[in-house]
Amino acid sequence: MTAKISYSDVEVGTELPAQTFPVTRDTLVRYAGASGDFNPIHWNEKFAKEVGLPDVIAHGMFTMAEAIRVVTDWTGDPGAVVEYGVRFTKPVVVPNDGQGAVIEVAGKVAALLDDNTVRVDLTATCAGQKVLGMSRAVVRLA
């Protein structure tokens, strides 16, 4: 695959389409099975509270994966991502209320780099709090 976005069509400040990602307890159990991460803080409310968390929290890698979807959907090619990194700033708390939580992600081209690459800065929030910091991806465009 090749990115559908052309390097010549973007500039610093180009905004990527924002997306929201719902997260329920069911989502966490499915992710635990797929990833092999069965840490009880991600599915056992009693345990999560015993270790000082407000409730069950989403896996950090799950949160990170949802955020990069904004970039891969924009480019049309997951292989266009050359680098990706984040800092985990706040957990995504997932209550057992039938609604769960919502991760909101926005992205913006922050720098034009060499070799048809750009740096995209992402902002990921949940319940009005930033859950990822320094969330950046380097992406090779067409």
UniProtKB/TrEMBL annotation:
One of its GO terms (cellular component) is fatty acid synthase complex. Pfam families: MaoC_dehydratas. SUPFAM superfamilies: Thioesterase/thiol ester dehydrase-isomerase. CDD domains: SAV4209_like. It comes from the Bacteria. One of its GO terms (molecular function) is fatty acid synthase activity. Coiled coil: none annotated. Gene3D superfamilies: Hotdog Thioesterase (3.10.129.10). Belongs to the enoyl-CoA hydratase/isomerase family. This is MaoC family dehydratase. It comes from Streptomyces sp. SID7499.
